[in-house]
C-alpha cells in the first residue's frame, strides 16, 4: 500500500510540474508576439535600459487593442524578459543591426 501511495504522489508531482512548465513557458506564437513588440520598441534610439524597454512594450501592447475589445491580453514581463535575454545574447554588432531594421531584428531573434 505504501508503494502505491508513493507512486501516486510522484506521478501527481510530475503532472503538476509539467502543467506549471507549460503555463510558464511561452508558446511559439506568444514568443513571436513579444519578439515583434520588442523589435518595434527598440527601434527608438532613446530606449536603452531594460526597464524603459519593458515599460514601452507594455504601453504599446496596451494601446494595440481598442477599448471595446472583449479580451485584452495582459502584459507578461517574463515573456519580455525572455526576448530581452535573447537580445542580450547577441553580439554587439548584431544588436546594433537589430536596432536599425525590424526585419533583421525578427530574423536575429527567431524562435529556437
Explained architecture:
With 112 residues, the chain is an all-alpha fold. It has one domain (28-108). It has 6 helices and no strands. The radius of gyration is 19 Å and the shape is elongated. The model has no long low-confidence stretch (mean pLDDT 88).
Describe the secondary-structure layout.
Blueprint: H1 2-24, H2 28-41, H3 50-62, H4 77-89, H5 92-100, H6 102-108
- Unreliable sequence segments: none
- Whole-number total of structural domains: 1
Secondary-structure element pattern, one letter each: HHHHHH
In helices, the fraction of residues equals over 70%
Task: State the end-to-end CA separation.
Answer: 45 Å
Structural class: mainly alpha
Radius of gyration: 19 Å
Principal-axis shape equals: elongated
Strand content: under 5%
Annotation field: number of helices: 6
Please supply descriptive tags for the structure shown above:
mainly alpha; 0% strand
